[in-house]
Amino acid sequence: MTRTRGAGTVARMLTHRVPRRLPTRSVRAALVGALACAVFAPSAHAAAPQKVRDAARKSANAWTLHRYGIGFRTRGGWKMWSARCRTASGGGWSCSLSMGGGQCFGTVQLTAGLRGYGHRISCGE
Prior knowledge:
- There is one protein chain.
- Helices cover 35% and strands 23% of the residues.
- The protein is rod-shaped and about 100 Å long.
- The chain is α+β, with helices and mostly antiparallel strands.
- Strand 2 (93-99) and strand 3 (104-110) form a beta hairpin.
């Protein structure tokens, strides 16, 4: 047994429209704030150039010490490295390095958080 509805009920159901409401003021403010943060947030490339060079130099020194036993174990020994860095396409950094008048040279990649990876450094006598 099915229950039937009256003609007036069906007509109301067909003509009833849900009113469209604009977002409240607080929701609009939150959306505008989120958009502003996304647009004006500092990117990975906003890191200070000196910090990027220092991170590359420290990473190269640690890697050559581990790999070849060549490097500076003394405090601040990483400062003997020279580095030139540029932004990389993946959002990090790519740095060219040399140490000790050319004894070691190569490249290192840095993440946006300034962690070293992809070391390509060779050391000669």
